[in-house]
Amino acid sequence: MNMLFFIVFLLFAILILRLGVIQIVYGEDAKREIERTDDVTVSTSTPRGLIYDKNLKLLVDNKPRKAITYTPAKTPNQKETLETAEALAKIIKQDTDKITERDKIDFWILKNPKEAEAKITKEEKEKYEGKENESEMYKLQRERVTEEELASLSQEDLEVLAIYREFTSGYALVPQIVKNDNVTKEELAFVSEHLSLLPGVDTTTDWERQYVFKDTLRSILGGITSGLPAENIDYYLSRGYSRNDRVGKSYLELQYEDVLRGQKEKVKNVTRSGNVLETVLLQEGMRGKDLVLTIDIELQQAVDKIIEEALINTKRKGGTGLLDRAFVVLMDPNTGEILSLSGKQYLYNEEKGKYEFTDFAAGNFTTSYVVGSSVKGATVLTGYMTGAINPNNTSILDEPLHILKTPVKSSWFNRGGNNVYLTDRQALARSSNVYMFKTAIAIGGGQYRRNQPLGIDKELAFSEMRNHFGQLGLGVRTGIDLPGEQIGYQGNVETAEPGKVLDFSIGQFDTFTPLQLAQYVSTIANGGYRMQPQIVKEIREPGDKDGGIGPLAQAMEPKVLNKVETSKEIVERVQQGFWEVFHSPRGTGKFFKDKPYRAAGKTGTAETREQGTDVWNLTLVAYAPYENPEVAMSVVVPSAYLNVRGGAENQINSEIGDKVLQAYFDLKANRGKEDKNEDNVED
To answer: Catalytic residue among 43, 242, 373, 411, which?
Structure first.
């Protein structure tokens, strides 16, 4: 007993000595370690910039939304996180639609650790013993969770899981949105009152993009992501983004991401043992800068409506089974500003069980078509620039062409062999194919001889024509300030027969976008300057809280991409030809002859195939007024009617073009009256 008491005494003596050393020698260090805090700087996102039309009508806004957030600790505790999720689930109603099968399995294992552990055999535990093999055991547990066990999760369990899922999807000390959709006032108030019982949870105001004019121009305005896109995550992280930031994912939102993103709010989180003690504001956030577009939203809506009505009315006619879309571009030929970018597609909605229109404005520069005779102005200009047409003698005999081992090629009005000499202007007015064929033959260094082979240098002809077409904007990028622009399909020169050169000259070989057609006709309208199309007019600093527009940050100046390599007089000859297209008795566009807006332009009809069926594309390029152009237009209607014997023709391209130009000038006149009335009131 004495020996036992001595041993106990000795142990207590050692314990007291050890406690004394800790208290006296290391006490201060321990105290400092316990009281030590860490400072972590965190950036939080701010609302994006707004988007206006050219008349400062709001197109895209930020709609505020009540939100509940969760800020994960630096070293999160799984048990505490789950307890917080369970407490929050009793207060708010959480949507469970985002829960995946994998989420349910992981949650069941978390809720039932003993049952999950029992799924691993003794042999497997011994085999995978050690932290480096824990993932293998966890994988086996996941694989062995049954459907019945998952079905045991109640609706309350699923709501807890939905909240827990949001808790764990964020990053340490970075606020994560838990709920920002349909947060009720009661939920917000109750959470705010019980924040002390919900560590990491907070209430705030979030935002979402609101498109004021619904689907109008929707494809051009673009969209935003719900977090950084995986394919570009390194790029965004290197530029100061957080993983849960929302960024532009298409068109305007993507193209002007750096402008719209805004300045993040920076806060310093003071933490102790991984928990946030206080938050200190380091830098106030500022929403992104605003965009002012060149688009006139009233005009845009009017053009959209015209297209929809024209498609519906035309589809009531025969031979229009494949007609489902149409495009219109309105452009200021002097500045390149896009006034309207309209595209509509008529599709069957499986969910709604009916046909409906969808916005397809982006199709104006992301899709291309054979456009037919609309490009003949470019062929004539190319003839002049290459010397194939003599400015002092522009007459060429329009006659059916008999080329060896080739079907007869002729103009639509001269299939009976009524040969006639035509000038360049007459050829444009009457849409002479043969005039363009002979011009293309001369460009290729050849000369037409009846019943002889087509002896031309096709590589030279294609090279010259594509080069000069490109000077006008055809077959090249227009330079519009939007991503995803296509240049169209270029036929293979190496495998093409020489006769394809003739097809190219009348718009039946390469394909072009509606925007390229608009740039091309603008170049002719303004005397030979290819202007870069632009859809953003200004960048503005954020406005005031009352909704006022902010000060100008940057104005987008008009940009000349190139000047056509010919004289002003030559371009004027094509302008005169375009005038005669619309106003001469034999002009193919005499539909426009008596219109008050005095337009000039060129119609086009292109034979092509769609879904294995022969169809006709209808196109139109125009500008007005002729003497002082202020608006240029392209109209493209693919598969306007079937190419069938007996005819199924329609004039949807001209009908759309007429109504669009009339709408433009009517809107201009009405605004002029409104401005005059306002001036009278002020006086």
So the answer is: 373
